[in-house]
Design goal:
Blueprint lengths: L24 H6 L3 H9 L2 E6 L2 E7 L1 H10 L4 E2 L6 H7 L8 H11 L6 H24 L2 E2 H18 L5 H15 L12 H25 L5 H7 L10 H14 L2 H16 L1 H14 L7 H5 L2 H13 L5 E6 L3 E3 L2 E3 L4 E5 H5 L43 H18 E5 L7 E2 L5 E2 L4 E7 L3
Helix pairs in contact: 6-7, 6-17, 7-11, 7-12, 8-9, 9-10, 9-11, 12-15, 12-17, 13-15
Length: about 450
């Protein structure tokens, strides 16, 4: 599997490019089993044409390691994601490569680790409690939209220093419009999803610019203030425009995927009373006071397993795009420079050669005795891998554990019967019904 001395006579991956211009894009966006059908037919690498580019889809832990580690320099993030991402999210860390990415990741790192996380804990818990109290009063609500608002508020308050209140709802709605435009046809005609996404982006950037100017004058403890003040070893700092796009990315990364995972968590806890019962027993052992602490969070080992299994079976994003900047061969097939690749998170996570009974929700596969994800490198990649592993992972883990602990310790709920629980992957995984809840009530003390 080397890119050296490539023989152009090596065959391209099997598969079809589809129709002129649009290729197989419509099937890709509408068929949940697009990659699975072709994997079953062609194996771990196949070709297609989606989102305007010839594409090699690569599947399995070996492919993940090839892309994320051993042949990392053959691929570009900036040239991989669709043009809609670049237009809507700007040239943020997500779409940077090489030294530029390394430098800016280093500037952003302090906002998501160490003392910053400790500082976030109390506010994060307070916001989560306010939503749980709100749902207790409502009793009936739709979880996906509520969790999206909650995680957006957490990201907005902690990362940008926004004030809690009505403006959060307004900004959250703008962000929903932006997210809905990421995987859609980029028609800038008034009334289209993409037109609304552009408007949402522009209004969010205006808001962010105002917030950055405020932080320059009066810094606080939020991540935006850290960004405004941070300099690298050469004394370089980010410009207002650079901070704006990085802040937009922090908002996006800080709530979209977490919303998806928390929605899936709530779904599986309702569907698997035995797992909920075991999670409750763990919380009862830890709960010597009503207060949740960082020390308790570290000791929630069963909840860790549950969250890993949510990541495995319900990954928020089905795969990752990269642009091919150096040609390569993989499993006997040649992929030219200028193509894009898509590595499949979903199909790797459901590979029976890695995970026992992969369609079954089984947190015990991650216990110390089994540790199925450690048998093969890069087999659990919901948060990426290698040097581009998710910067906000610790932030997301803390948020999800605080939420899960408060929910499991204090509440009982039922799912509304007859709702559509089939899963929609756009923009991130969620039930088509949004997960309708009824009888959300406090547990008897």
């Amino acid at each position: 599997m080397s890119s050296q001395n490539l023989d152009q006579n090596i065959p391209l991956p099997p598969g079809k490019f589809g129709l002129p211009l649009i290729g197989e894009t419509i099937n890709f966006l509408t068929d949940q089993d697009f990659a699975l059908k072709r994997y079953q037919k062609y194996g771990s690498i196949f070709k297609t044409n989606i989102l305007g580019k010839p594409t090699a889809v690569m599947i399995g832990s070996e492919a993940n390691k090839f892309i994320l580690q051993s042949h990392f320099d053959h691929f570009s993030w900036a040239k991989g994601w669709p043009a809609t991402f670049q237009e809507l999210l700007g040239k943020s860390l997500f779409l940077q490569d090489g030294e530029e990415h390394k430098k800016n990741r280093k500037l952003l790192m302090p906002s998501f680790h160490g003392q910053a996380l400790i500082n976030y804990f109390e506010t994060m818990e307070s916001i989560i409690k306010s939503y749980l109290n709100k749902w207790e009063k409502q009793q009936n609500f739709t979880w996906f939209s509520e969790l999206k608002q909650m995680t957006f508020e957490i990201a907005s308050v902690l990362l940008l220093g926004s004030e809690r209140g009505d403006k959060i709802d307004y900004l959250s709605n703008l962000f929903t419009d932006l997210s809905n435009g990421l995987f859609t046809i980029p028609l800038k005609i008034p009334g289209t999803k993409y037109s609304k996404a552009i408007r949402g982006r522009d209004l969010l950037l205006q808001h962010l610019e105002q917030e950055i100017i405020k932080r320059k004058e009066n810094p606080s403890n939020d991540a935006l203030s850290l960004l405004v003040q941070t300099q690298d070893e050469d004394g370089n700092s980010l410009s207002i425009n650079e901070i704006k796009v990085q802040a937009l990315l922090m908002l996006f990364a800080g709530h979209e995927t977490t919303t998806s995972m928390l929605t899936s968590l709530c779904l599986v806890l309702a569907q698997h009373p035995d797992i909920l019962d075991q999670a409750k027993k763990e919380q009862e052992k830890l709960q010597n006071t009503d207060i949740i602490t960082l020390e308790q969070i570290k000791n929630m080992t069963y909840l860790d397993q549950v969250l890993k299994e949510v990541e495995r079976l319900y990954p928020p994003v089905a795969g990752g795009f990269r642009g091919v900047v150096k040609p390569f061969t993989f499993n006997g097939y040649y992929v030219p420079q200028g193509w894009q690749i898509l590595y499949s998170i979903q199909l790797t996570h459901q590979n029976s050669e890695i995970f026992t009974n992969p369609k079954t929700f089984d947190p015990q596969r991650f216990n110390k005795e089994r540790e199925e994800h450690r048998k093969t490198e890069y087999s659990l990649v919901g948060f990426g891998g290698g040097s581009r592993f998710c910067l906000g992972y610790a932030f997301a883990q803390m948020e999800m554990k605080i939420f899960a602990a408060l929910l499991i310790r204090n509440y009982h709920w039922n799912l509304e019967q007859g709702q559509d629980l089939s899963l929609n992957r756009i923009p991130t995984l969620h039930p088509n019904s949004g997960l309708k809840v009824k009888e959300f009530q406090p547990l008897p003390k």
